[in-house]
Amino acid sequence: MSPESEDRPTTATDVDVLVLGAGFAGLTAARELSQRGLSVRVLEARDRIGGRTWYAEGLGRGLELGGTWVHWTQPHVWAELARYGIGTVPSPAPTIAHWWEGGAARSGDPDELLARLDEPNRRLTADARRVFPRPFRPLEQRDLVASIDRETIAERIAALDLPDADRALLETFWTLNVNGAIDEAAYTQALRWVALTNGDWAVNFEACASYKVDGGTGRLAQAIADDSGAEFRFGSPVVAIEQDDESVRVTTADGQVHTAGYAVATFPLATLARVRIAPALPQAMRAAASAGQVGRGTKVWFRLEGVTEPFVAFGEKHWPLNFFQGEYPDGDGIIVIGFGPDASALDPTDAAAIERVIGRLIPSARVSAVAAHDWVADEFAGETWPMHRPGYLSHALPGFHAGHGRLRFAGADYAHGWGGFIDGAIESGLIEARRILADLADRADRADGADLTTEADLAADGDLDPAAHDHLVATAA
User: Which of 68, 1, 96, 33 is CA-nearest to residue 439?
Assistant: First the structure.
């Protein structure tokens, strides 16, 4: 059933599973569970599906205001694209690069600029495969991960003892990846990302900013939703979750109480702290929710007049916008995407403010129109893409993987693999749906007198036993 066709009034009745949020994690979990015959209700705070992806009209064309890029190194999103016959379109290859060095703007060959990043990035991420030999099991080497999980990306870059210009370029590169402050971002998250592309930082960068969903992320989200038998209720922000041994009760802002055997929460970490949960989450999970993620930056689209060739541009790490990519040549101008590390540092609708920043790199730049959404100010997001703080991976993520009684967690914040990406959201939705199905099957067997170990019992200190994880991923694929 398509969520856009679901507009009939209904009353709050018991269902097998409540899915809290209609982003890619929630849509995937709802599809998997409903296709296996369970009754599923999706409670979505917004008036649309997609969560922190949002393909909308702007600047005379469709624009991705949120999550955008996909890649064949991301197995779950790639499988979904194949399932629905949806292709990808490449971002244009830049013909020129601009960057800031020694207090002045420089321009040159894009390949030469990326080559300058090569050795520093290889040194920075050299341990990626050693720490994460099988990166879809991020806690397989828990002691090793814990031993470095308190370090920040900034600390590790400083330890490389690079020339000033190379250090500044590497810092702004990782500020872009973090979409926040690198002195607050976990070094383990950088290693984890690069491990997912077999330890190659350049392939990882390609995965982050090169291929978009043909027709937009909304096309894929709608395909998954259309394949679901779930009931969708929009305008239903969750304010409280209570549970006992038998059921979960979810209260929405309008006072309705929805009950189910299980609930899958897909809230971004930044918004989780605002939901009343009883019994309370373990302290490590509460602390992580209170701190939130590091990704609290800016993403903005704008039309740049007088420039027609695709380009890539790096500013300094502290600039309100520190990265630009010319995406869509448009007559005598080009539509550009820009990122910055601090959403409070720049009004993304202020064309003059954007022009002042990019004008440092391209003095002739004239910004005529802008389009953006402030995800940090968005009450249902509170962050852009999730980038972990030191300690999150080893202390908090195990609890989110294990779940909290009948409450499970899915989303890019809680992914086993591609944390911060659409792929990670889809993966976590698959895993949590299969966990619920396995738990129901085991409970049925127990009721029949069998003495089986439930899937939940296979959680070892919060992370799935490797054999159980492999089984769940295999059956979900």
Answer: 33
Q: What percent of the chain has pLDDT over 90?
A: 90
- pLDDT tens digits along 321-340: 999 999 999 999 999 999 99
- For domain 114-205, give the fold: Polyamine Oxidase; Chain A, domain 2 (3.90.660)
Ranges of CATH 3.50.50.60 domains, the chain: 3-51+216-292+386-476
Cα 99 to Cα 120: distance, rounded to the nearest angstrom: 17
- Long-range contacts for 473-476 (Cβ within 8 Å, ≥24 apart)? 473/136, 473/427, 473/430, 473/431, 475/434, 476/32, 476/430, 476/431, 476/433, 476/434
Q: Which residues contact 267 (CB under 8 A, 6 or more apart)?
A: 20, 21, 238, 275, 411
Bridging pattern class, strands 40-43 and 211-213:
unpaired
Is pLDDT of 4 > 90? no
CATH architecture for the domain at 3-51+216-292+386-476:
3-Layer(bba) Sandwich (3.50)
β-bridge pairing 257-265 and 15-20: parallel
Q: What are the tokens at 426?
A: 């889809």
14: left (phi over 0), alpha (psi -120 to 50) or beta: beta
At which residue do the structure tokens 């990882």 appear?
Answer: 204
